[in-house]
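ESCALATION

Customer reports they have been waiting on this structure for their group meeting. Please prioritize. Original submission:
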Amino acid sequence: MAIASNEFWIVFGVLLALVAFLYSSVGHGGASGYLALMAICSFPISVMKPSALLLNLFVSGISFFFYYKKDFFNFRLFYPFAVTSVPAAFIGGMIPLENKLYKILLGIVLILAALRLFGFINTHEKQNSKINVAFAMAIGLGIGLLSGMLGIGGGVLLSPILLFLGWATLKETAAISSLFIFVNSIAGLSGFFIGKDTFPIQSFYFVPIAVFGGILGAYYGSGYFSNKTLKYVLATVIVLASVKLLF
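Update from on-call: job pushed to the front of the queue and completed.
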């Protein structure tokens, strides 16, 4: 990656912390936001995927800790998704996608993420219904494979499904998604390490910034925090990134 100016890295760091803050507040690791930011900044794909997974690992872990402390985690709702998503994410992490295909798939996922942030995908709580374990395992398998391939944790896909089917409340969804992202990120990174000889060292430089934003976001999000304006701004950034990737 080409050396950029100090001003560029300052702005990038601030935006990275903001993405981590916002995503962790709703129980997510922030991969779609990190990937959108890196796509706009023209980071090479070889850096984007492992960096997003690494940051996801830290931020989702922090988010889960705060939501778990508030007693929002429901293991019964979590395990059917995780039991199939983890091995699938590991396999997906080993699959090297051709640049054009990677950009197309990522662009589509980013559009879905933006639609959710804009509120076009229903995320309102419904009356709780009993989880269908076999269906949940199938969902976990598909999300896990895609997560490993693209370098996302899958929370942006799992959360609306949980809420749409009425399987979890908003807070339960945040807790389940954060751990789901955490285990998928571990699996995806493991697969990446096996499939690649090197890991971009610059990815580790982003960790302290994301952790700072993640701690603040998870602290406020697990309580009563809500900020629609920030969500709309982030959604706009993600749309711009998806356009850049697709066109």
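Sent to customer with the following note: The chain has one domain: 23-246.
Escalation resolved.
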